[in-house]
Amino acid sequence: MRATVAPGTTGTADKMSINRRIDTVLFDLDGTLLDTAPDLANALNAVLLDNGREPLPFAHIRPAVSHGGAALIRLGFGITPEHADYESLRRQLLDRYLAHIADETRLFPGMDTVLDTLETRGLRWGVVTNKPAWLTQPLLDALELGTRAAGVVSGDTLAQCKPDPAPLLHACTLIGTCAQQCLYVGDAERDIEAGHRAGMRTLVALFGYLLDSDDPASWGADALIREPGEILQWLE
After folding, report:
1. Which domain holds residue 87?
2. Is residue 172 located within the same domain as residue 199?
3. Which residues have C-beta within 8 Å of that of residue 173, sequence separation ≥ 6?
4. pTM given for the model
């Protein structure tokens, strides 16, 4: 299935001309490169059970995963960071998650082919995520991706995180490229905003963790993709 070009984006000829100059593909992590929802859902449900609450259905948890630990605690316990119990519950969640960080997490189906093809073609790829480094690096290493990525920028690498463009621009510095030669793929509005502000081309991963209230067609990405293989189609 071909990637769906978002309304108001560049024409085909212009897009192909730009695509030929792209030498780096950057990925968001949760919900874009990796399907981390099973392990995060298991961690949340374990903490719920430990605190005398009923576990939640996986389908109810999955859309919140891209929004981090705060969203999961809010979903499971109905509290925000101002609540007295919030920090304790967040720590329980993250400790449980770290201990089981790659039990069920995998590349999204077809993403292995995308990475192999990019590498074969001499294109670099990297990761820009809001996930903290103490979770990001062990996860990538567990899946043998850490040494393959040309650059990894985590949520605490800089003082700023997405939707600020600084992490994406820092990835360019690490990799040795410029924003105009990068494509950024993500599954949240903040990803597309960060990409735009950095001057990159952007794709929305519709296979990721979108909320029912999300309207990705309005985010202004260059295309909406339904499966990882469409990244290669767009580049071609």
Report:
1. 37-99
2. yes
3. none
4. 0.90
Can you read off the two tokens belonging to residue 103?
Answer: 């039990």
- Give the model confidence (pLDDT) of 130-145 as tens digits: 999 999 999 999 999 9
- d(Cα 91, Cα 109) in Å, to the nearest integer? 31
Residues 6 or more apart from 70 whose CB is under 8 A from it?
Answer: 80, 81, 90
Rounded mean pLDDT, 207-224: 97
Which among 152, 151, 138 has a CA at the least distance from the CA of 94?
A: 138
If one counts the domains in the chain, the total is: 2
Residue 116 CB-density burial (10 A; 0-12 exposed, 13-18 middle, 19+ buried): exposed
Is 103 a catalytic site residue? no
Identify whether residues 31 and 44 lie together within a single domain: no
Same domain, 80 and 168: no
Residue 157 near residue 171 (C-beta atoms within 8 A) = no
Q: What's the CA angle centered on 98, arms 94 and 102, to 5 degrees?
A: 130
- The CB density around residue 109, as the number of other CB atoms within 10 Å, is 12
Residue 125 host element (H or E): strand 124-128
Phi, psi of 149 (to 5 degrees): -70, 135
Write the CATH number for 129. 3.40.50.1000
Residues 155 and 133 in one domain: yes
Catalytic residue from among 14, 23, 28, 103: 28
- The pLDDT score that the predictor gives to residue 2 is 45
Tell me the mean pLDDT in the region 86-104: 98
| Token output for 213 | 């209230």
